[in-house]
Amino acid sequence: MPSVLITGGAKRLGHGLCIEFAKKGWNVAFCYNNSAAESENTLIELKDFDIKVIKFKCDVTNLNEIQTGFENCFQNFGVPDVMINNAGVYPTIKKINEIDDSLWKHVIDSNLSSQFYTSKVYSTFVKESGRIVNIGSLGGHEIWKGRIPYNVSKAGVIQLTRALARELAPKISVNCICPGEIQLEEKGPDETWSLPNDRIPMGRSAYVDDIFDGIYFFSTASKYITGQDLIIDGGYHLAR
């Protein structure tokens, strides 16, 4: 039975990905940091499936914590076939003079450094074959007003994907998904807005299963496919 590790799997997109992989019969491991209550709810949902499930607390901006958390997880779960780098933050809009050092560091560490750290540790445990799928953003391709740290961090994820793909080949394939707007039950602090459907050629924002389809492709297709960056936004970037 194939297995997957999803960072930030307790809520929002990560929670949805856990459920979608479980529906496919995959064993699921996920980590969380500040979402203990949500992690319990996700665990309960996953136990409805006939799969192996494990969760663990891990701050993915802390390399030592990743090393310990992954090692303990893999001892009980096994080294997963696929790791999904999903954990990240989407901060509120800030003008450049409102972006202090702590905010900048928090966003870069959460969205970019974390994916380097987890990939580094995961690669040391993979013996023969593995896959990494990074979650970037359409914001890594575009410049959104008031979102300098976010845009820069997600652009970094795209370039990190390419660098890791070359560094870790042929043992591990590394690819990236860049979603546009996603319809989630739980919205973030700055997600009260929504794109009008007439601005998206496909007529709606993405659902979790739309994003999952891209992730599942990279998780199961030929490992010869590596270093790729797939935008999933219903064609929004084509209509700008």
Question: What would your notes on this structure say?
Answer:
The protein is of the alpha/beta class. It has one domain (3-238): NAD(P)-binding Rossmann-like Domain (Rossmann fold, 3-Layer(aba) Sandwich). It has 6 helices and 7 strands. It has helices at 12-23, 36-46, 63-77, 101-125, 148-168, 208-220, and strands spanning 3-7, 27-32, 53-57, 82-85, 130-135, 172-179, 229-232. The protein has a 7-stranded parallel β-sheet with strand order 3-2-1-4-5-6-7, sandwiched between helices. Helix 1 crosses helix 6 (208-220) and helix 3 packs parallel to helix 4 (101-125). It starts with a strand and ends in an 8-residue tail after the last strand.
How many structural units, i.e. domains?
1
Main sheet: strand order: 3-2-1-4-5-6-7
| CATH architectural group | 3-Layer(aba) Sandwich
Structural class designation = alpha/beta
Shape: globular
Report how far apart the termini are: 43 Å
Order of helices and strands: EHEHEHEHEHEHE
* CATH class category name: Alpha Beta
- Mean pLDDT over all positions: 94
Largest sheet: 7 strands, parallel
